[in-house]
Amino acid sequence: MAALTLRVSRLSGQTCEVQAAAAWTVADLRRAAEAELGGLSQIVRESGEILADASALSDVGVKHMETVVGLARQPQLVSNSCGHALSMSDGRVFTRGEDPSSRYLLPGHLCDVRKLVANNAAFAALKGDGSVQTWGDTTAGGDSEAVQSMLKNVKELHATWLAFAALREDGVVVCWGSPHFGADASAVQEQLTGVHQICAASRSFGAIRQDGSVVAWGDGFYGGDCSMVEEQLSNVQQLVGSDSAFAARRDDGTVVTWGNHGGDSSLVRGELYAVRRLYSAGDAFAGLREDGSVVTWGQPRRGGDSHQVQSQLRNVQDIKSTEANFAAILEDGSVIPWGRLSVFQDDGSILPDGSVITWGDSAFGADSTSVQSELRHIRGLVASHAAFAAVTAEGSVVSWGDPSCGGDCSKILDELVDVVELLGSDSVFAALRSNGSAIVWGGENCEATVHGGPRSPTDVAT
């Protein structure tokens, strides 16, 4: 293939032209476009086809002067008991261990990260070239040396509590970490080809194959064994995992379930039809039906019992969920919550005037009375496991809830200025500032860390 010129456009409308050499891969094109457009995670054709980074331009059939779309890299923040990892939209990556004396090694060089994933004790980073880098507790997947040769051309990463699974471009699945939490897929390894979607429960994984069938592995009590319903698992379009069960939506709108809590849907079997989307929260599931109604099952305290609000669940447009509850967004923009109401990520609602209301368990950030006077002109709100943080129109930050989850930022208020974006994770928050730096606070030690600052495009952070 002769050299060609390609137009790379962001969704914002910003466009550049790239002179591509004959031997280039899609990754080469993406990196060249980043010099003018900033961080890009993927290249997509206008038809919607995602071009794999490892593919040669000659193989994917792009044409001279064709316009392709560069998807902007989004900042990501993940955390667990070992520390946190933060990737910026410009490609910089920062990590920190929770305990400086920890035996867990942090990555020495980490850049061009497409996706960050954390389980309870380890981290995995999917890089732009389809490779994977891991760190953290070696028994939980922090050491991937045994499978590193197979971690090529990876397009998705997923995690149970103590294991990881990678889906490659060729539909093959690679697992590592604790064998008791889904890392041992030997019993179904021959079936783990032609896979196009993976999802995780706490101790098991499930996968949809190209033919619409489903494979599950891991702890059988937690959904890792679907043999009892295998004959029903055909033409599956969506697979969702809770802590200990799975639910599969078929192309006719019916639902098949298996596993522990939420795995038995017999009490609502007659209502599980015309379902257009499935959601999970802890040990419960919710199905949004075509007529805008909602059906729930599983652990009542985790949102499996919605009878108290069932009469209000009409004209539902979407459902949000976290570990212990659900909230339905209605057509008129109102929100109907149910479940334990303790760690719901959208417990705080931003009203049209920029004020915030909260509800639920005060131990998990629902009591905002101490900062209510400051919750005005809010333009962004994020949550951790048990706290909230809000950014104001002026770029300052207000947080409340459990200090070990980022609920107290009083010691760093002078630094939390000119904030353009907030990110939340399990135990820490990150404030991205206009000068290119980031401040992360929370965690077991309730400490704050400043990452980065003004930089040139060639700088790499570790």
UniProtKB/TrEMBL annotation:
Top-level taxon in the UniProt lineage: Eukaryota
InterPro entries according to UniProt: Ran_GTPase-activating, RCC1/BLIP-II
Signal peptide, first to last residue: none
Protein name, per record: Ubiquitin-like domain-containing protein
Provenance organism: Symbiodinium microadriaticum (Dinoflagellate)
